[in-house]
Write a structure and sequence with these properties.
11 strands; mainly beta; 0% helix
Amino acid sequence: MVYYGGFLFSTMASPSYGQLFQPGTQQELSPKSTSSPNALKMPSPTRSISPNLHAVRITSPTRGQQIPIGKDLIITGISLANSTSHCHVSVMVDGVKPYQRATPTGSHSGSAAADYSKWKFLLTSKYTTLKQGPNNKIVAKYSCADKPNVASFYSINIIGTSVVTTATKL
């Protein structure tokens, strides 16, 4: 069995079942019913745990979106982290290391503990810039202080486009 981000995975051929616990606690997370397409999908305790379940998701920009190069970009997302989980989100663009810490924007972000249930990251030229074309990869990493060797990743590719300026005749 392998422990991964709050999940136990069995390597046996038979179906595996598990419970999802709030990181840092023994409180079971129940599936959230929401109509939002950006909501994280939580497995029910009776369904098989998918190895593709992500603890973090990038909500903007979207996969394949065209983004002007040479301009700042706000990257936003959601995660399983909250103000009591001791977890955070970091972002890497086009393989430029190290990962950059995102800013927590969840409903409890003003408290002493950061709430990364919602997060944002401002991509500026100080870190890196987007390249022309379809090979701009953004990776979000979810990790927890109490489990430094366990992480969840989510990535998208976006398309860097030239900024077209038009001259206006006076």
